[in-house]
Specification:
The complex is a heterodimer.
Chain A (H helix, E strand, L loop, with lengths): L12 H18 L7 E6 L1 H9 L10 H15 L8 E4 L4 E6 L4 H21 L1 H6 L5 H19 L1 H13 L16 H18 L2 H5 L4 H11 L7 H8 L5 H22 L1 H21 L5 H14 L15 H17 L3 H6 L8 H11 L2 H8 L2 H7 L2 E6 L4 E6 L6 H11 L2 H4 L2 E6 L8 E6 L10 H12 L3 E7 L2 E7 L10
Parallel strand pairs in A: 1-3, 7-8
Antiparallel strand pairs in A: 2-3, 4-5, 6-7, 8-9
Helix pairs in contact in A: 1-4, 1-13, 2-3, 4-13, 6-7, 6-12, 7-12, 7-22, 11-12, 13-14, 13-15, 15-17, 18-20
Chain B lengths: L2 E5 L9 H22 L11 E6 L16 E6 L10 E3 L21 E6 L1 H8 L17 E11 L9 H14 L5 H16 L5 H20 L10 E10 L2 E9 L6 H21 L2 E9 L3 E4 L1 H6 L8 H15 L6 E8 L8 H15 L2 E7 L2 H13 L5 H12 L3 E6 L5 H9 L7
Parallel strand pairs in B: 8-9, 8-11, 11-12, 12-13
Antiparallel strand pairs in B: 2-5, 6-7, 9-10
The chains are: A alpha/beta, B alpha/beta.
Chain lengths: 502, 437
Amino acid sequence: MGQLIYTGSDWSFNLLEKAYNECEKIALDELKLCVYPNQLEIISSEQMLDAYSSSGLPILYKHWSHGKHFSIEERNYKKGYTGLAYEIVINSNPCINYLMEENTMTMQTMVIAHAAFGHNHFFKNNYLFRQWTDASHIIDYLIFAKNYINDCEEKHGPEIVEKIIDSCHAIARHGISRYKRPVKLNIFEETEKKEEREEYLRKIYNDLWRTVPKTKKQEEEKKDVAFSDPEENVLYFIEKNSPILKSWQRELVRIIRKINQYYYPQYQTKVMNEGWATFTHFYTMNRLYEKELITEGAILEFLHMHSGVVYQPNFNNKRYGGFNPYYLGFEMFKDIRRICENPTEEDKEWFPDFANTNWLDTCLNAVANYRDESFIRQFLSPTLIRKMKLFILNNNTEEDHYIVEHIHNKKGYKNIREALANQYEVGNMIPDIQVYDAKFKEDRTLVLHHNINNGKLLNKVTSDVLTHIKRLWGYQVNLESRENGEIKAAYNTSSAPQLEIK
Amino acid sequence: MTKYIIDRRLNPPGKSLSNRQRFIRRAKKYLKERIHKNIVNRSITDKGKENVNIPTGGISEPTFETDPKTGDYDFVLPGNKDFLPGDKIKKPEEGEGGGGGQASSSGEGEDEFAFSLTRDEYMDIVFEDLELPHMEEKNREDVVVLKSRRAGYTTDGSPSQLNIKQSLIKSLGRRIALKFPKRKEIAELEKEIAELEKEKPRPSAEIKKLEKCIELLRKKFRAIPFIDPIDLRFNSFVKEPTPTTTAVMICIMDVSASMGEKEKELSKRFFLLLYLFLERKYEHVDVVFIRHHTEAIECDEEEFFHSKETGGTIVSSGLELANQVLKDRYSPTDWNAYIAQASDGDNFIQDQLPLENILVNQLLPKVKFYTYIEISDLYTRALDLWSDVMGKQHNNMWELYEKLSHEYSNLVCKKIQNSTQIIPVFREFFFKRKESA
């Protein structure tokens, strides 16, 4: 059969190339993956920490919070609380894969299979990524953003820029219009649009207009335009309607909003994305071994690392910290393959449409068309629920007991599947906040509604967030937490210490 | 499928340095507070990274989050052992509730944010706006020492300073200028002759011509020396005045029975600050510890702060020793001398005159700066008051130092009652005096 790619543990550029080519054969020919071109970059551990602090992006605007995150990561790493990731991969075209120089050759091979093929395929094919991100332009956009923010700092002073970015960060996760078709990032159009916007403002500026008295009809019209539907994209609303922001400040808001849009698919597909990459590296490494391209020592080293990656402690273990996405995703893809190849009677009953079909097609279809929530709702099988011994607890925070609602039995499967899927719903991760009114004709108070989900109220930093919104809005901000139209809690900015732009 | 492999390790490090500086600027207020509070726990000569904990409040990044203590919801957990539907499980104490593993993402405690500063960053914060007095304006010339510095090459010098490379370069240049023949040229001509010899008939005229050429070259070869005195170059050094970058700091402390642990602790904090401050300004700082009761001894740091003595106090003994040390080991041309003295203010009454004498005549003219702190707790202050009422002479040192501090600008003195005053007093001593700059 084949000739061993490598024998020792040290890597070299030559060996990386060979390993990449072998992984590529398996990924493209056997797994039928479709990927962006790859760019493998070797980095040191310090550079890995750098990459952490900029949320894995290769270029990010400067801000103190990135320095804060860097020092947290650095400290945890140096104290040995956490190891560094073996890799970071960026959803761009070409797809950038960071490999750590400390990795052994086996690790590098695994990382190539995991990131350069697993994640890369996911980025290119999953519908959320296709809809929300534009891999070819992200790097350009990041450069544009960084330069723009730099220019602003030079023109207007770093303090004021920092204040606006601080406030944008506070509501960065509320910058998505889920039900509108998103506009992808495109650097050229962005710059053009930005210039157009400025040029238009310049052209139409005529001080005389201000002095022309408005007719009653116009006034009426303005009132009507003020509000029709609630707006869930708080950041967008502020960018377009804030009475106090200058045009360059609106541009900053826009940049933060656009960059955060890039993360939107990521936190909705964590389980699937990691699961698929893990599945890919597991398949690839085993195939390399079967083809006698790697040694027995290498496959044992790999299995040791792999079992660390997919370790899932039980709920009563000290180390339990929620579900390990690598584990859950990997087990599910493995399970889909099992159902396709060797379905039991139960599986045939639960998954009539894909039991006994081609497992690869089913997996690729799942990768392309689902996100965590729908993936679990569709594919979590009773077998896996039994294997993981899943159970549902009800937490009524007013009681001093949890109640076990369902366990892994016939009555429980459907409920467990629903409950787990709900846990991965965006609405369960980020509170649902909407702009409800802006009282343009009165005192310009911004009214936000929080739609309560499962009775969960907001925590004590809420009023701090409101002061940040007020900084961008310029006038009072009220927030009401509502459940079935009934106000459960209310917050406003009148009592909190105030933040000003200047 | 195309791929690229790039080695990024050679990229310059410190990509996130500017973010770090931004963060320090942001957290400065809190860092300063903590540093000023904790600085006293350091050993005087401690080095390395400084860990500072700051409250998370000022550097928090609030976002909308739900409160885990509210609501009524289901959640899924792995690893059921023996629960059945309907079982009730008591919630763990201390709000660990939720069970959904909402561990803090930072892995740190919730209230404190631990941060490592480099030594330079640390010192910048400690000594922000402070300046050593009398450095610039007054004693610039005194602070210099002559230092040898390379200054190119000269045509004259001692053989030990001969620079072979430069000399040979000169020699080569001269030989080229004088068309010094190469051995190769002669060898080639000889070869030519040898070849002509073989020819028949022998072209004797040509051979003769060539032989003449060779002779000319040989003559030149002998006439032009390979190396000439004119070629020689010597390394040259000039003496240049440079500001000295060495300082000696003499710590003098009264260790008589009246100085308790608390007083020593306060002195230590003060000495430490001064040491750190001097270290920033000078490349090299020597520290001399002198402790005294009725007689003075030079000792190491450990002994200085921790051993206990009994007996009365003769302050001049300590100053005498300090003067001796300066005379013997630290000549004022090479060293900037600083003296820090700490005492509880008591002195043997007959020692007053010698004390003033040595201060005025010996020490004050020699040192750059002399700080005197008097540690007086409430008890001694009460005694002072009592003595005032009784019209007695008391704490005689304070009066002396205070009087002198008006006459000599390089002497400062201050009373300290508790540790919170250390930083303010220190800052007062060294605060940048704009008018004198």
